[in-house]
Amino acid sequence: MATKPLMRTLAQWHIWLGWLVGVPIVLWLASGLFMTLKPLPEVRGEHLRLDSEAPAALLIEGSALADEDAQLKEMRVVMQEGRAVAILTTLDGVTSRVDFATGEPIPALSAQEASALVARSIIGGDAVESVTFYNANEVPFDFRRPVPVWRVALEDGTFVYVGRDTGAIEAVRTRWWRWFDFAWGLHIMDMSEREDNSHAILIGFAALSLMGALIGCVLMFRRRKARVKAAAT
Which tens digit of pLDDT belongs to each residue from 80-105? Predict the structure, then answer.
């Protein structure tokens, strides 16, 4: 006899939890479904890249950079336009490029050079609509990295971000990527930064949704017993 009041209580809880978490669950399912419609490499625009230059071997002893001062935090060696280029980052975050073989500094990319790089490295990259420069502290929201960049906007809505100091394509943002990013923000309930996937609101709604689902599983046995009893009579 004590089972019936318990089941009624669980049923009431199930209904109230359904009203409370119904909207978040719909958003999770809809955004999750949307994010599965295309594979991640295509979302990231990797299918648009034409360049295939691989990183060069890191041979500091044979380089003119062997005596670089101790303020150097990081050095990456890549192939750019058929030559080995060292991308240097100091402890205070300043990035620059030098010729790996000679140590000669390479000037920062101009708007024309950034546009030319996109034209030869991205499918459809010659259809440029605009080229805009952004300092590291004012980059667009869809880039979200403190790096000075040129944004080369293509006619199909794709944004290609080219590092002014690295001379490399830092990111490709298609229209689909921007919708994907919006869906991801909905999915983790963080529309401001779209980075925090562990916060109180998300954890709370996820816990309530799990509780509602578990109660629903328990109530399935109640309905099954009721059907069996009705069939027997």
Answer: 888 899 898 888 888 889 998 888 99
Token pair listed for 64: 């003119």
Cβ(196)–Cβ(161) below 8 Å: no
Neighbours of 17 (CB within 10 A): 18
Q: Which two tokens stand for residue 162?
A: 């080219």
Strands of 105-106's sheet, edge to edge?
A: 72-80, 83-90, 95-99, 105-106
3-state secondary structure the chain: CCHHHHHHHHHHHHHHHHHHHHHHHHHHHHHHHHHCCCCHHHHCCHHHECCCCCCCCCCHHHCCCCCCCCCEEEEEEEEECCEEEEEEEECCCCEEEEECCCCCEECCCCHHHHHHHHHHHECCCCCEEEEEEECHHHCCCCCCCCCCEEEEEECCCCEEEEECCCCCEEEEECHHHHHHHHHHHHHHCCCCCCCCCCCHHHHHHHHHHHHHHHHHHHHHHHHHHHHHHHHHC
Answer yes or no: are the C-beta atoms of 42 and 177 closer than 8 Å. no
Q: Which pLDDT tens digit goes with each residue over 124-181? A: 999 999 999 999 999 999 999 999 999 999 999 999 999 999 999 999 999 999 999 9
Give the angle subtended at the CA of 168 by the CAs of 115 and 78, to the nearest 5°: 140
Global confidence as pTM: 0.79
Retrieve residue 98's tokens: 């030098």
Residue 208 tokens, joined: 């309530």
